[in-house]
Amino acid sequence: MLFCDVFQERPAISYLQLPICNRNPGYEVRPFHDMHRSVCITKGGQELNFIDVVREDGKHVGPMSPDTGFTINRYALMTSSCGTLTWKKFVVKSSELDSLETSPSQALTFPLVSMDNPNMVHFLLSKKMADGIDNVSVVTVDMKAKEMVSSHPYIKGNEDLLGKDADMVRRKSHLLQPFISSRLPKFFNRSSFKRKVQTRRQD
User: Fold this and answer.
1) When comparing pLDDT for 33 and 58, which is higher?
2) Is pTM, for the whole model, over 0.85?
3) Where are the domains of the chain?
4) What is the spatial distance between Cα 38 and Cα 35, in angstroms, rounded to a whole number?
5) Residue limits of the DUF1618 domain (predicted)?
6) CA of 148: how far to CAs of 61, 85, 118, 154, 186, in Å?
């Protein structure tokens, strides 16, 4: 990961390796890894998090093998006492999420950390249906309490083919993509965020 202070006249570029345990050099599987990983800002832009969902069966895509689950790893970027950057790890296993479906056939995908609360992480969860159109829900997991706090329908399977978004449903039911919070415009309009930007520009 490369990052710098864009407000500096000559930004110094720094490199920090993401804490990925199951690295695979093959380019053909990289898109599948991207489904389970994301880098997000939280705490109003004050903290950077990396989310990595690791399947126990070692597969990259498709239904999980029987009697297997997944692990959600949340890494928060911290500054150590000696001034170096380090990752602090938080872990939740699918078996700990009592409110989640007992044996989900799919792992959680496309993680997105709340912009306000780093413990709240949103995911997409797919469920294969006999009619060929997957049911997809937006699931929110509390990483601190280790529980699923909400689940909202995103694609309701064949039922959504009757609406005006039928083309989107056919496409996204099987080819899900990363999503952004509908609160993003509100975040950028915050007076606190604007003050931070103005202060950095003055410096």
Assistant:
1) 58
2) no
3) 30-176
4) 8
5) 1-122
6) 22, 30, 15, 16, 25
